[in-house]
Amino acid sequence: MSRTIMAFDYGTKSIGSAIGQDITGTATPLKAFKAKDGIPHWDDIGALLEEWKPDLVVVGLPTDLHGKDLKTITPRAKKFAQRIHGRFGVQVELHDERLSTTEARADLFAMGGYKALSKGNVDCQSAVVILESWFESQWGE
């Protein structure tokens, strides 16, 4: 049975989103949400969840290259994940997002050059990278 999985790339100024199906293991960018000091407009997040009705939400967990928490952003991403679960009652998992932004920039540049590298595009493509990486980790077990 196929599940719909949504991913978020959390940031203090912008939060990217993507949607995918675990049967195909592919993800599609959705939209980026502006955030004010890490806090999104929750009604916008709720509307997206209502529209897609995901079975699971994956939130990228920012860490350093060694997988250690980053002092300021890691706890905030965890809090964002907890709030999604608490506010909307959807199952949430955290997933290591090391290098997702770098990979997203490379993917976007390959598709559309510098013009494709807008902040919103990068954040949404980062969410795609996070989700596809999560799919790969599920199959690797």
Compact overview of the structure:
With 141 residues, this protein is of the alpha/beta class. It is built from four helices and six strands; from the N terminus they run E-E-E-E-H-E-H-E-H-H. The protein has a six-stranded mixed β-sheet with strand order 4-3-2-1-5-6, sandwiched between helices.
Which tags fit this structure?
141 residues, alpha/beta, six-stranded mixed sheet, 43% helix, nucleotide-binding, EC 3.1.-.-
Description:
Belongs to the YqgF HJR family. GO terms for molecular function: helicase activity; hydrolase activity, acting on ester bonds; nuclease activity. Residues 3-104 form the YqgF/RNase H-like domain. It holds the Pfam family RuvX. The protein is an alpha/beta fold and 141 residues long. Helices cover 43% and strands 27% of the residues. It is built from four helices and six strands; from the N terminus they run ββββαβαβαα. It has a six-stranded mixed β-sheet with strand order 4-3-2-1-5-6, sandwiched between helices. β1 and β2 form a beta hairpin. α3 packs across α4. It is globular and about 35 Å long. The chain starts with a strand and ends with a helix.
